[in-house]
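TICKET: design request
STATUS: open
ATTACHED STRUCTURE:
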C-alpha cells in the first residue's frame, strides 16, 4: 500500500465503523444471557469475526438478519465443549476475555492464535484466574493455551496492570462462581463490560475511591437478553481526526462516536495541542456516552502527557505521534510501557518509522520524545508495521503529508477497519 501526499485536505461527513471493544462484548454477553438479543451496527472486522465464530463453536446460535445480528442465548451454563480448538487470529481481546469465561466452564478448551497473538503475554490473565482456582496446561504463558474448565471460587483480586481485558476476563469468570467476588482495579480502564452487564440485568456494583475502583460481582446469576446499538469507534475516528488536523483546508464531521470517559484521552490530548474539535449532541446510547464531532485543520503545538494519560488512550498513541510530528515544538509522551506488548512493539515501531521519515524521535525508558522537522525527507520510505493495524493506518495518515510512503503488510488493517482505504480516499486521501 502506498500513501501519497494530498493537496486539498480531508473533508465531508465520514461514517466511522463500530467500536471494536464494544462489538466483542456485544457477542460475548448476549451469548451467555437468556433469550434473543438483537445487535445493530456490529463491527465486521477480522478480530470481531473470530469472537463470533468462537461462540458458534461453543454451541451458540448466531444469525445475520439484514444488517442485524441475532444471538440466541441460553444462559451462562449453556456453552458446549467445542469439538476443535478455537482459533482467534490476532485478537488479544478475544483471547483474554474467553480465557476468563471458559475457565469457569466445566469442560476443556484450547485457544490458538496467529504468530503475533501467540507471542503476546497471557500470564497476566492466567495468574489472577489461578487465585480463583482456575487450571491451565501451559508453561510458556502464551497461546496455544489449554483451559481445564472447572468450578471456581469467589475471590478478592487486585489488578495492578491497567488492562480492561484482564479486568473483563476476571468479571466473566466471577459470573459463574458461588457468592460475591471483588475485583480491585488500581488503575482506571475502559468500563464497557460493566456497562453492558448492567444493561443485561447483572448484579454488579462499583465503588470508586480516587483512582481505585472496587467491582463486586454476584455469581450464578441469570442475565436477560437485550438489544444493543454499537456506537462508532473513537480509536478508528482518531485516524480521520488527525488527518484533518494536519492537512490545510480540512473540515470533517463524525457522527455517533463513542466518547466513554474511560477512553476519551485522545480528545483531551488533542485539545491540549490546540486542536479545533467541537463535541456536539452528547447523549447516552445502550449505556455508552456518544456524541457528534466537528474537526478542522489546526496549528498544533507540542505537549507533554504524563503516564496517567496512557490509561485513557493507550491504543491512540501511534496516531497521536503523527499529530506530534507535525506540531510546533517538542512532544513528550510518558509511561508507554504497555505499547510494547500490543500486536507489535508499537513503541519501537513508532520510533523507527518516524526516524525513517526524517523526524527526530527517541525512546528513553518508556517515554516517547518527538521533535518535529520543518521539512520531511524520508531516509527510508518503507514503513515497517509487523502486521500491526494501528501502525499501518497511522503512517498512512502521515503519508498524506509525505509523498510515497510504502506501508508494508497493510492487510492487517482488516483487523479493525476493513474499508479504511476506501473511506480515507473518499474524504480526500490518496492511498493506492
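STATUS: resolved
RESOLUTION: sequence designed for all positions
ATTACHED SEQUENCE:
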Amino acid at each position: 500500500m502506498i500513501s501519497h501526499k494530498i493537496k486539498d485536505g480531508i473533508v465531508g461527513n465520514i461514517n466511522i465503523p463500530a467500536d471494536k471493544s464494544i462489538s466483542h462484548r456485544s457477542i460475548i454477553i448476549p451469548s451467555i444471557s437468556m433469550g434473543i438479543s438483537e445487535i445493530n451496527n456490529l463491527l465486521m472486522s477480522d478480530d470481531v469475526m473470530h469472537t463470533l465464530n468462537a461462540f458458534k463453536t461453543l454451541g451458540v446460535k448466531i444469525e445475520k438478519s439484514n444488517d442485524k445480528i441475532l444471538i440466541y442465548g441460553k444462559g451462562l451454563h449453556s456453552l458446549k465443549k467445542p469439538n476443535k480448538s478455537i482459533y482467534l487470529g490476532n485478537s488479544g481481546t478475544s483471547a483474554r476475555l474467553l480465557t476468563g469465561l471458559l475457565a469457569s466452564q466445566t469442560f476443556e478448551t484450547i485457544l490458538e492464535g496467529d504468530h503475533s497473538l501467540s507471542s503476546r503475554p497471557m500470564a497476566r490473565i492466567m495468574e489472577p484466574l489461578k487465585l480463583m482456582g482456575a487450571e491451565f496446561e501451559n508453561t510458556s504463558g502464551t497461546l496455544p493455551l489449554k483451559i481445564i474448565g472447572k468450578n471456581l471460587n469467589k475471590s478478592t483480586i487486585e489488578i495492578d496492570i491497567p488492562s480492561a481485558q484482564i479486568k473483563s476476563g476476571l468479571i466473566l469468570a466471577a459470573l459463574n462462581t458461588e457468592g460475591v467476588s471483588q475485583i480491585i482495579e488500581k488503575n482506571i480502564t475502559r468500563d464497557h463490560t460493566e456497562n453492558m452487564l448492567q444493561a443485561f440485568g447483572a448484579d454488579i456494583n462499583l465503588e470508586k475511591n480516587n483512582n481505585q475502583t472496587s467491582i463486586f460481582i454476584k455469581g450464578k446469576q441469570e442475565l436477560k437478553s437485550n438489544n444493543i446499538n454499537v456506537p462508532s469507534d473513537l480509536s478508528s475516528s482518531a485516524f480521520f481526526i488527525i488527518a484533518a488536523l494536519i492537512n490545510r483546508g480540512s473540515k470533517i464531521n463524525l457522527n455517533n462516536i463513542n466518547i466513554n470517559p474511560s477512553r476519551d484521552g485522545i480528545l483531551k490530548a488533542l485539545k491540549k495541542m490546540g486542536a479545533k474539535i467541537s463535541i456536539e449532541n452528547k447523549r447516552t446510547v445502550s449505556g455508552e456516552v456518544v456524541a457528534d464531532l466537528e474537526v478542522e485543520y489546526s496549528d498544533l503545538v507540542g505537549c507533554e502527557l504524563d503516564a496517567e494519560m496512557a490509561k485513557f488512550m493507550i491504543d491512540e498513541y501511534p496516531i497521536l505521534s503523527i499529530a506530534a510530528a507535525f506540531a510546533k515544538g517538542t512532544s513528550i509522551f510518558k509511561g508507554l510501557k504497555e505499547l510494547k506488548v500490543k500486536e507489535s512493539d508499537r513503541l519501537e515501531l513508532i520510533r523507527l518509522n518516524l526516524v525513517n521519515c526524517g523526524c527526530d524521535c527517541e525512546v528513553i525508558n518508556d517515554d516517547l520524545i518527538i521533535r518535529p522537522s520543518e521539512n520531511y525527507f524520508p531516509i527510508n520510505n518503507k514503513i515497517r508495521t509487523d502486521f500491526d493495524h494501528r501502525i499501518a493506518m497511522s503512517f498512512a495518515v502521515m503519508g498524506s503529508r509525505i509523498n510515497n510512503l510504502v506501508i508494508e503488510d497493510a492487510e492487517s488493517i482488516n483487523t479493525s477497519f476493513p474499508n479504511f482505504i476506501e473511506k480515507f480516499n473518499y474524504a480526500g486521501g490518496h492511498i493506492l
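CLOSING REMARK: Residues 20-217 form a domain with the UDP-n-acetylglucosamine1-carboxyvinyl-transferase; Chain fold (CATH 3.65.10.10). The first helix runs from residue 20 to 31.
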